[in-house]
Write a structure and sequence with these properties.
This protein is of the alpha+beta class. The protein has helices at residues 2-8, 15-30, 82-94, 162-165, 169-190; strands at 42-51, 57-63, 68-70, 72-75, 100-101, 108-114, 117-119, 122-124, 127-137, 151-158. Helix content is 30%, strand content 28%.
């Protein structure tokens, strides 16, 4: 399973990621239907942290179910290529036609709790999202459109504001972590590493 190897090769950023990684690996090895919603306890999802070309804005949607500004993402639904899932979800949820990976490897790992809710007039029990996050890029000049069945708004936001606009404390921590990781990469780029061409000098 390629996803298993991808997670095995992932270098955790902090204790949260290290412990979540171990749980994820055990989950893959010991559970069935990990890529589909048939596993009602937990299943894989893919999320995207989408930056503009100047790296000073993040693309957010106002999620209907969570009633909060949120990153983009969705269920694997049987697809093992979670990078592809993340890109597809960005396009579907925001109307963007051009979305590119800044890096093809996983950018962040997290296990997310989902409270029971109604979707399409059907109750979905509380469960876990075993989530892989990918770092993507898009133009902030391209027209955005909402997807009414999923969200009420789509907007580019200042990279320092995205955590503040979220109503979900657990997600605020994740967004802060993602931006912290970006700043670390920015510092690495100043030392002449490969991210030098990725982040501009006047942001992050």
């Amino acid at each position: 399973m390629n996803l298993l190897r991808e997670i095995e090769n992932y270098e955790p950023y902090n204790e949260q990621e290290a412990r979540d990684k171990n749980v994820m690996l055990g989950f893959i090895k010991n559970q069935t239907n990990v890529l589909t919603r048939e596993n009602e306890i937990a299943h894989f999802t893919a999320s995207a942290w989408v930056l503009n070309e100047k790296r000073d804005k993040v693309l957010m949607i106002y999620h209907n179910i969570y009633d909060s500004w949120s990153w983009t993402g969705g269920h694997a639904d049987g697809e093992e290529n979670l990078l592809g899932v993340a890109i597809k979800e960005v396009k579907e949820e925001t109307g963007l036609s051009e979305v590119r990976p800044i890096q093809k490897d996983i950018f962040s790992l997290e296990i997310l709790t989902v409270e029971g809710h109604l979707k399409n007039q059907k109750y979905v029990p509380s469960h876990l999202h075993i989530n892989c996050t990918y770092l993507l890029e898009a133009s902030d000049e391209e027209e955005l459109t909402i997807r009414p069945d999923e969200n009420q708004g789509v907007r580019w936001m200042d990279i320092e504001v995205c955590a503040k606009v979220s109503k979900e404390p657990s997600m605020q921590k994740i967004y802060l972590k993602l931006n912290e990781k970006l700043k670390v990469r920015r510092k690495e780029s100043l030392k002449g590493k490969s991210w030098e061409e990725v982040f501009c000098e006047d942001c992050l």
